[in-house]
Amino acid sequence: MRLGKPLLAEFIGTFALVFIGAGAVTVLAPNETVAVALAHGFVIMTFAYAFGNDSRSYINPALAIAGLVAGEHAVADVIQVIVAQLLGGIAGAALLAFVYGAGAPHHLGATLIDLNRTTLLGGFILEAIGTFFLANTVLNTAIRGTAGRLAPFAIGMTVSFCIMAFGSVTGGSLNPARTLGPAVASGDYSELSIYLAAQVLGAVMAGLLYRFVWKEAAPQASGAAAESAADGL
Q: Could you tell me the pTM of the whole model?
């Protein structure tokens, strides 16, 4: 499997997601949830269309894990992709820190649970369910092919509606790279383990559901479609 282009695509896409998504949180007021949600959703949609032929354009380690659990990818390939995604997220947040400085508002877009609205467990549940929704959307629309060319739209809008629903409580990260990047840039790791555990759990659950329920109904790729799938992740 040729991973040169997919790794570069995942790095650039994740860099853009954190730089634009966390950047929107940094510069917009707390009540601009819809704008922040759309910033994340549009970035994901744009790069899925841009790089979809080169990689799955997951730009999210949790989605790579879901694909692994679903039986779509090899372990060695997924590890490389996750490293590229995490590096992209850290690079995006580092550039934000350079542009806006250490005193930037809203912790450079870091995702932290609002304990005035819920508990740590409540935040964990929200992130796990949101990541499950997102991974389920990706596995079915992009891999099983239920949405055709509209798959990037469905994926981007899943992130957007999760941020609209509970972004003001957890940030609606649903993405270990989106969580890790701003945490590194701001130096705040206090809730990092909660987010990572929730996101991995949601991804694993979606991957298992797809593998044992939906995958059986997936049509077999053939001809040019099979060749295209083999070239990407």
A: 0.90
Distance of CA 19 to the CA centre of its chain: 13
Taking the domains of the chain in order of start, what are their residue ranges? 4-222
pLDDT in tens, 223-233: 444 344 434 45
Question: Mind giving me the DSSP string for 138-196?
Answer: IIIIIIS-SSGGGHHHHHHHHHHHHHHHHHHHH-----HHHHHHHHHHHT--TTHHHHH
- How far are the Cα atoms of 85, 135, 138, 205 from residue 141, in angstroms, in the given order? 21, 10, 5, 17
What pLDDT digit, counting tens, does each position of 18-32 carry? 999 999 999 996 789
Query: Is the Cβ–Cβ distance between 180 and 106 less than 8 Å?
Result: no
What are the CA-CA distances from residue 93 to residues 4, 62, 140 (Å)? Answer: 23, 18, 30
Mean residue pLDDT across the chain: 90
Architecture of domain 4-222: Up-down Bundle (1.20)
Amino acid letter for position 188: D
